[in-house]
Batch of 2 targets.
Target 1
Amino acid sequence: MSARDDVLSRIRSALGPDRSVPPEAVRDYRLTDDRPLDVLLDVLVDRVEDYRATVARCGQDQVRTTVQRLLTETLGEHDPADVVVAPGLPAPWRPEGSTEDDDRPAVELAARAAAVTGVAVAIAETGTLVLDGSPTSGRRALSLLPDCLVCVVTADQVVGNVPEALARLDPLRPLTMVSGPSATSDIELERVEGVHGPRTLLVVLVAPATD
Amino acid sequence: MTAVHLGMPTLPTAPRGVGHLRGTRSFPDEARDSLRNGQLRANLGHATTTIRGKRAGVVAELPDWEQLRQAGAALKRATMARLDDHLEELERQVTARGGTVHWARDANEANEIVVRLAREAGAREVVKVKSMATQEIGLNEALEAAGIDAFETDLAELIVQLGEDKPSHILVPAIHKNRSEVREIFARTMPDVDPDLTDDPRQLAMAARAHLRERFLRATFAVSGANFAVAETGTLSVVESEGNGRMCLTLPDTLVTVMGIEKLVPTWRDLEVFLQLLPRSSTGERMNPYTSTWAGVTPGDGPQDFHLVLLDNGRTAVLADEVGREALNCIRCSACLNVCPVYERAGGHAYGSVYPGPIGAILSPQLTGVEDNASLPYASSLCGACYDVCPVAIDIPSILVHLRAEHVEAQTHPTAESTAFAALARVMSRPRLWRAAQRAAGLGRFLSRGKPVLPRLPGPAAGWTRSRDLPTPPAETFQQWWAKENGGGRS
């Protein structure tokens, strides 16, 4: 008998011929967070900053200048071409002179100073940004290898809690949920930021359209 | 008791697990040694106190924590009841998305599969994401034996590997080491380490980054575990903090994920429960820094060759026990270790298994068979703190008692304890014998030399007093006092 058939038959023996099926899970936990958007945006900022990331809020026509300002504050004087942007990042968001990611070998991204991406969803309650491998979020290596990551989040992407976020996401895409910069608690269970992933996380939160 | 054959067809019983699940000495023997290690107790006391406070804070933030916990428990129970169907669905989905699924009856088979895949890929070295399953099966040793270098990339696993040590905690395998001990290990074993390295945790984390950076960038073959697998979509998930997981899941050409068969959930939506329960219970954070999910192979993004190894190694034997199977619901958060008074004092190595602490005390003996790990169900005071914090509400104390009963029933000869309790029952049911015994017990006061606790007793009672304080008997019993106060009259 193959290992597969063996393991499956062991499971069937273990459960017995008249296996009892326990009651279905009751989902009486909070499925949505119905607080107004402006409250959720404040919560998101509070939670992301709690992870020691930097957040800047801006209007819809200020994304490029805000991204550039944060990059300059973090990197100092830098070669603009050393900043790589996701291929689907809207043109008005891109810093002047930045490089668009293409199908170069992923490891080459390690030499770059910073990456700029969009996100698919942001979760206010946990301060989490979710990247989904789409052209706007970029491939996974882009948000991993450069030491500084800038994520642009629009207000309509912000949801309250984890159940709302998962409902918006496609489980067949490669997803990365980012909550602050890379960190570890492995020495005496005290959290320190900055290990293998980007040591700096900058978040640009774009205000909703006003009309 | 003799076994009565009822003419029932015997079902094939699942073989027990092999691998790093049992120590060479019993828990009391190991614990006695570790209790003498003052540094170990100080390190564990500091670390577990820190994490207990953080967990309590973020759990209290959620008004629906108990509802999430009950939903988590119910989801896991429902999953186990149809484990075969869910595994077949997972296999179909992973295969449909370009992955290859392998099945392993035990640790040896799983190791053979990974070694074969590494050889076929021509890999001389392997980068690893921290994974309990691969610790359990001893994969690193199997790879080394095949001439393939395995590099742990999680900071705590790296500390353990460089220090030629053993893991002592599910989440933080190097919890028994403090910052200055970590500095000493890094200074001694990392070739290019800065000689001025201090014991500041941030500096130590930077040293690990520098040490592993090149290795990540040249890696072609990675091995991971999985926190969750979603049957309906074939989605796998790794929950981590440092980004070493993302490096291993993203950069190499080949990824092999080794996963216990109990790790799956039926639907994508089920993760909305577990992704809330796990980070708050384990590192005490609202969310861990990085959670990665992937389904099979994604063209142009990440490994283009993906293999999933489904591991039994004793799990089906656990599933066969209707009470004990709850142990399979564990999501490896380690909250039960951090609150356990026994773990905090004895440390993880005393349990002899890669699964220490309260969950280890019920999981390891079931994976190996209780008789092979007989001291672990007793490695608890049954205080119940583990049950209170468990995010999937595993009733660990009840399972401990269940396993103790199983161990006692398995004894073919009367034990000292069972003989003593049989004698006690006889004495307590006969008033004259009982009074005589109480008078005799009063003689124990001579042994105490005025101290409130008796010294270790000799002979058959030694086993009892070795790990327990026996109070000095009082100068007079209640019955003697009553008789004196009431002039000898019976009430």
Target 2
Amino acid sequence: MTTSQLDASQFTRDRHFETDIVIIGSGAGGGIAAEQLTQAGYKVLLLEEGAYYTRDNFVMEERWAYPNLYQEGAARKTRDKSIGILQGRTVGGSTTVNWTTSIRTPQPTLDYWQREFGLDFSNENDLTPFFEKAEQRLNIHQWPVPPNANNAKLQQGCEKLGWQYTVIKRNVNGCANLGYCGMGCPINAKQSMLVSTIPAALAQGATLISRLSVRKLHWQNDRITGVDAVPVDSHFQPRQDIHVSIVAKHYIVAAGAIGSPALLLRSKVPDPSGRLGKHTYLHPTVISGALFADDINGHSGAPQSIYSDQFVWPDTDNKPGYKLEVPPLHPVLMATKLIGTGAEHAALMQNFNQLQVVIALQRDGFHPQSQGGTVQLDQQQQPVLDYPISDYVWQGMREALLSMAELQFAAGAKQVLPIHHDAKLYNSWPEAKAAIAALPMEKLRQTVVSAHVMGGCNMSAEPTKGVVNQDGRHHQLKNLSVFDGSILPTSLGANPQLTIYALVWRNCHLLLNKFNTSVDSSR
Amino acid sequence: MDRRQFLISGIALGAAASLGVAGWHYSVQPNSDNRDWVLSAILPALLYDALPEDTTLAMAQLQRSKTAITDFIAFLPLSQQQELQQLFNLLAQRITELAFTGHFTTLAALSINQRLAILQQWRDSYLTTLQQAYHGLRELLYGAYYGQPEHWQPLAYTAPKFR
């Protein structure tokens, strides 16, 4: 362990730090920013609420990974408990535990942002050079190994039905095809922030403080003046006994799309657009299980190597779109999501290795009846996301259950089980089709999950329509940037890590240009 | 009820379970007695068909799951821990009321199927809180049970080991 890495839970007295740039959060946004800004010669302090766990800690068991690497023990829920949210909380953020799928921002999403939010990512603002930089830095390539059986069934179903599918690009180097990406890569093959940009930044002089929860930004007039933080205890609960203060020239909030709005709400920063903490998107996801005669072994092999965009951009705006992917299958993930109790549940679990699972991610945020959720603060000032599901979104979910069942039967499934608490194993596509059409699409009956949290500090050309500008700079506070998935004005219709890498890389580049051309006004 | 079912359904996972219908304490404060009591009532029912034939092994698996639940709860945000405790208090009360109306005098006398029926009632209740209780407990309890490598034999699954 070097002196550039501090564990706040070891602090025995109040501490004060001064730096050029403080970055709050070490995920996709904070990780990229730490390397870029350190390389440019600035003194960078990188703060992370989670712990600094590395490959030697990653034991490939959910019982260790979920409480130690995920927000709320991977049991984070929306306010009414109707949506479960998987989100990382560790050095590297969600990049340490994601499933490595790397997709450039879809053009129709960028077009929508231009129409609705005045954001122009064409010509000199084109993101292409930054996608290329991120792809090179993180070794993002199309996965050359044949898909595991779980993904292969998605591919085969698409082939049978004439549906579009794509072989996924992954940020890995020397991947052993283990399948445990969600519990932290035990061989450092996944090119997460944990093994790429963060060690590079530390080697060049940045300082990382882990197990530190930032509670408040102080501000005066149009500038942030300091940060209040506290260490967390062994269960990641904020402590009261020790206080940490930090003063910087520029402040970067990168605490994720729930954490960043929560910090800005706690700090009561100016919010003239009224959009802070609003319009939080989840890619709300429904699940379809299928039993095959042959072994699927969904725990083994690259978790995601095939996706289908057959339904993500329907011809009419009146239908929500959804993306088809598969998840890795591990005992806790399966046991908690499979329906039923007693003998029914035990019998499903005994088919663990024959179970194939498809997920459908709803592209939320592109319709008046799909305006996302709201980040609120509980009594301890911790975030809670309220996300009501509209009839429009439920309709998309029913269509997704139908598509997934049709696909699984086309791929040769013996039986299909939509993950809905009133569903059962269906023996044929016609039987499933009739049953799904009659399922009540209601919260706490239809299981809904999310692994992508976006929005809440959305970017916009005009200060009336967002929290930050196109470059991630806060519309009102001059020395504040937000560099993470919270700046997305809608969901993406694609897994978000590569979009965040490219946007933040671009925004660092612009921030450095500003630093160089002005003596102090922007710092 | 056969002997195995009787033994497993009567397992006392905490000191309070032996108190039977008198086990419920009204409180919004953390009260581990109510939590133990509810877990003693529900865990054997949710897991009965997943447990090994050997009663001693089955009891050890239940105890291991209960320990895992207690360990995990500490990682939840404080507001969720409080909600969960209020839920355990409420559920302890509901089970106690059912016990009085159902004329059984100890928890052990409530069969696995009767307990699963109580869970189904919560699932289909018009009260959102009870629906949330069903889903919350299901996830918490199944997550704790299937998180343990000792419980994976019926799944024909082992996690790879590197070190």
